[in-house]
Amino acid sequence: MTIHKSLALTLRCGDYSETSQVVSLLARSVGAVKCLAKGSKRGRNPFGGPLDRWTLGEAVFSLRDPNRLATLMELYELERFEGLRTGLPAFFGACAATELVLALVPEVDPQPEVFDLVIETLRRLARAEAEAARAIAFAFAWRLLALLGYGPDLEHCVQCGRPLAEAGPGAWSGALGGLVCSRCDAPDRRIPFTGKSAQALAFLLSAGWAEVERVRLSSATAEALRGALGSRVAELAGRQLSALKYV
Prior knowledge:
The protein is an alpha+beta fold. The chain has seven helices and eight strands; from the N terminus they run βββββααααβββααα. It has two domains: 2-79, CATH 2.40.50.140; 83-246, Up-down Bundle (de novo design (two linked rop proteins)).
C-alpha cells in the first residue's frame, strides 16, 4: 500500500453507503483516481463534513491497486470556487469541464499540466462575467484535448493534407479529428466549419486568458465549436457530453 499526499480537486462525489462516499479526484501528483471516503457523511470525520465537487485541497490517500478504489484518508480544504455555484454560465462551464476530464483523462497517470489547466479554468469561471464563461469553457476544452495529444491541425486538411489556406475549411470531421477542406468529402462530414470558426478556435487555443475573457462568441461560432468538440469527444470517449449543450 502506497500513501500519497497531493494537491487534489474533487470532480464528482456519490453516495457509497449511509456514511461514506465515492469521490473522483484529480490529484496533481497522481492523476485521476477514484477514492472511497469512509465516514465522510458522519457528523465528525476527517473531511469536515460530506464532500462536494469542485473543492481543492491537500489530500492524503492510499492506493493499493489502480483497478480498485483508493482510500481517501484526509482532505484539507483550500479553495471552493464559490462562483461556480452562484451563476448558471459558470456552473455549466464547470460541469462541461468536469465531464471532459472524467471522460478523457486516464486514471493513475500523473498529468500536472492538465491539473494546472483545470484549476486555472475553474478560478477564471468562478469570477468571470456571465458573457465570458462560454469562451473560457471552450478554451479549456480545446486546450485539454491538445495537452492529451488530441489537438487539431488547423493548417492542413485531415483528409488530403492540402494547406487549408489554399482550399479553405469546409467542415469538421470528428472521426479524423480535424478540418476537412472544401475539396474533400469525409465520410462523417456533418459539421460545417467556416474560416471564421477556425480562426476563433486557433485564438482560443493560443491566446492569454485575459484575452480569452474578452471574447464574445457569436451563436454561429459557438455552435460550430460545440458541434466539433462534441463529435471529437464522442469519437474518443464513446459517448456524448450532457453538459456541453448548455455552454
